[in-house]
Design brief:
- The chain has 19 helices and no strands.
- The protein is mainly α and 409 residues long.
- The chain has a single domain (3-395), classed as MFS general substrate transporter like domains (Growth Hormone, Chain: A), CATH 1.20.1250.20.
């Protein structure tokens, strides 16, 4: 694409509003990791229970993302992409505000579930809407713009989390979401969806369409596997970075907020690089393979070369891992391109949230391996296994670059 085409996408109202929505989405997801310890201490959780309580909240949030991913996807395919976007941002904005006033762990867990349920609809519906609204040769760049805004939201969350109280951080996220909801009122629906609706194919959409077809289900699962390494790094390595750093003998105490900040700063660089590389190579798959190769180098480096290192080297490694994680929106775009209009929102909304929810089995597996081989060896095994599985899955998927998306399953 030439420079003028990229500038026109930056001025495109659909792309801009969807990008701002993902900004708020990632802000909330990252904010929880950053204020985890402060908020838990604020409601009276003892230091000895911080890890178990934090894991409980994380798993409830991921469960909400998983349930919401399917709910919003089905809604987006049956009633429209915009209705899914309206509902999701309203729910997670209100949940964000409510999080600022929690006083007990059970209430906190419930609100993280509600927030996760709302957040689940944002990225998939946004990428689906943009993919169906911009020229097919520009889909990668449009999605990269969305992803870039999301990663900026992560940096803002990490920055604000260190400047204001955890309650104020949640309130800011809620207010931003409600403001964005008003800005979305004038955005039109996807023409591809409207065409499918007129033909009657949109109303037939259901998760059963995916489950009832072995070939479609297998394709769905392979798309999920492609994204798992991202959430191994984000949901395991970064979330529990203080604990890993202590075992590695890092010379200075590591803060989860700083690790997450540096990781997402790397992703801000990696996300547009992934989109641009995909455009340059005219291939989604080759662009993704390049990032998997980087992950195969950096994940072992985290465990073998950070022993007795300084905090600066630790955070720099988090930054590099963020670059390797920068294929998130490219992965979501590729997922959208693999399925027809009548189930595209269901797939594109649920797949990223199924990927996020894999943090649950990965964290459970990590805890079970901790007693036998240690948390460091266990995490390394899980991380390398996730990358190898992603590579094998991508090899068997067809190329989708410039694929015409105006079709139904």
């Amino acid at each position: 694409m030439n420079r003028s085409s990229i500038l026109s996408l930056l001025k495109n109202r659909v792309v801009l509003i969807c990008a701002l929505g993902y900004f708020v989405d990632v802000y909330d997801l990252v904010l929880f990791g950053i204020v985890r310890i402060a908020s838990l201490k604020g409601i009276g959780i003892q230091d000895s229970d911080l890890l178990s309580s934090g894991t409980l909240l994380l798993n409830w949030q991921m469960a909400g993302l998983l349930v919401g991913g399917f709910a919003w996807g089905v809604l987006g395919d049956k009633y429209g992409r915009m209705r899914a976007l309206y509902g999701s941002i309203l729910i997670y904005s209100l949940a964000n505000l409510a999080n600022a006033f929690v006083t007990t762990l059970p209430l906190y867990a419930f609100l993280r579930f509600v927030a996760g349920f709302g957040l689940a609809g944002e990225l998939g519906a946004a990428v689906t809407l943009v993919s169906e609204s911009v020229p097919k040769t520009a889909r990668g760049i449009g999605s990269a713009i969305i992803g870039l805004a999301g990663f900026v939201g992560a940096v803002c969350a990490a920055t604000l989390g260190g400047l204001v109280s955890w309650q104020t951080s949640y309130i800011i996220g809620g207010v931003l979401g409600l403001g964005l909801l008003l800005a979305r009122v004038k955005i039109g629906e996807s023409q591809m969806f409207l065409t499918a609706q007129k033909k009657g194919t949109a109303a037939q959409s259901s998760i059963l369409k995916i489950l009832s077809s072995p070939s479609t289900m297998w394709k769905y699962l392979r798309c999920v596997f492609v994204g798992v390494p991202i959430w191994f790094v984000s949901g395991i390595l970064m979330y529990f970075s203080p604990e890993f750093a202590k075992e590695l003998g890092v010379q200075t105490s590591i803060l989860a907020g700083q690790a997450i900040l540096w990781n997402y700063m790397g992703s801000i660089l990696g996300d547009p690089l992934a989109g641009l590389l995909s455009q340059k190579l005219q291939s989604r798959k080759n662009g993704l393979f390049a990032f998997f190769a980087l992950g195969l180098i950096l994940i072992p480096s985290f465990f073998f070369f950070l022993r007795n290192s300084t905090a600066e080297i630790f955070y720099f490694t988090c930054f590099l891992l963020g670059i390797a994680n920068g294929y998130w929106t490219l992965f979501v775009t590729m997922t959208a391109e693999h399925f027809g209009t009548n189930i595209r929102a269901t797939v594109t909304t649920s797949v990223p949230n199924v990927v996020r929810a894999t943090v649950i089995p990965m964290s459970v597996l990590l805890l079970s391996l901790k007693g036998s081989i240690g948390s460091l060896s266990g995490a390394l095994m899980i991380g390398m296994g996730s990358v190898i599985l992603a590579i094998l899955s991508l090899i068997s998927l067809p190329e989708t670059f410039s694929k015409d998306l105006n079709y139904v399953e």
